[in-house]
Amino acid sequence: MGRPSSFLDETVFAAVANCLVEQGEVRLQAVTATAGVSTGSIYHRFGSREGLMAAAWLDAVAAFQRRFLAALASPEEMPGLAAALVTPAFCREEVGRALILTTGRRAEMMSDKAPPDMRLRLDQLNAQSKAALEAFAREQRLPLARVRLALIGVPLGAVRLYLPAKAVPESLDADISRAVMSLLTRD
Amino acid sequence: MGRPSSFLDETVFAAVANCLVEQGEVRLQAVTATAGVSTGSIYHRFGSREGLMAAAWLDAVAAFQRRFLAALASPEEMPGLAAALVTPAFCREEVGRALILTTGRRAEMMSDKAPPDMRLRLDQLNAQSKAALEAFAREQRLPLARVRLALIGVPLGAVRLYLPAKAVPESLDADISRAVMSLLTRD
DNA sequence: TTTGTTCTAGAAAAAATGTTCTATTATGGG
DNA sequence: CCCATAATAGAACATTTTTTCTAGAACAAA
């Protein structure tokens, strides 16, 4: 049914990440050049620049969240630690998506002019994360602010010390763990 | 000696921060409108868009560093803690500069095309910070990576949970302190 | 007051960027 | 083999954004 597509979304998203890191901004011309895809194809698939940016953002957020929620739900000796360590692992294993999440600005990636269905989807994902964190905080009898700091703020702050210039070292996990455990310990 | 200037750098930098937060990007037209300054004046003072961005970035970095280095040098019961708490304080007391540092991308603010003297100045500032952190790590006999995480990564990750949408709450300091102390404790 | 200097003002020009459009290519089904 | 469909390609077009340029305003010193 029709001509098959000649490139993956993933390839374009990687180009977006690359531009974000190299030039600090996403120009369509730079994306097409990097990904080796024509402007016509970009518009055919994503509709507009806004659509492309929103798609890249959504893809990265969803991929991260899948791992994060799974880790948060899995039973552990130290509840929450696995979830905190998802961030550095994600940065090592899915560099492109991690770069979009760490160096992309939300207001720029998912602007007011982005397709409404995509904005809705993002809101849904955010609500899901929020609910999961609140449930965790309740179960553990810890303040929500501290849980957010431990599971998101600290790991993100940690990997940003390296990205986008350097790879996230394995040794970072031990330091993250130390900080996270201190935050997730009740008094 | 010539006509006096009718606006402060600060006013323009605040407009840059505002654009960064509101639109996720810095358009000169938006800056001139927000700051109430003509394009002619912007070019007269900053030379180009790149020059303006570099100036705003440099101003924010320098302001932060002044406080950070002072705190790091001041004697304390818990060495380094005061330095870690500079970040949330900076976000409360110098919001515009904090927004530039937290939401601006370095590659965009200080691009390759920025004035060479400004790029040099930034390199000098970075070298200064690096040296201070290394000295601190040596004195405290702690790994440099852990010191960087404690004094920069954690506080930055913490305030980013709030900025740019919300104010950084006072209660955050206690949580940051907890995490930082666990990282700065040997063994 | 005149002169020299520095700054502001904003429209015009130039450059860069995003979008549309038509032609073309690749695939499957009738 | 021909048709319908769906995708690619890239030049032409439209829009947006940056930059330049000329005129004029504010101030100090002579």
Automatic annotation (TrEMBL), chains A, B:
Record-linked InterPro entries: Homeodomain-like_sf (IPR009057), HTH_TetR (IPR001647)
Keyword DNA-binding assigned: yes
One function term, GO molecular function aspect: DNA binding
Keywords: DNA-binding
Keyword DNA-binding in annotation: yes
Ranges annotated as DNA-binding: 27-46
Residues covered by the HTH tetR-type domain: 6-64
Domain of life: Bacteria
Name recorded for this polypeptide: TetR family transcriptional regulator
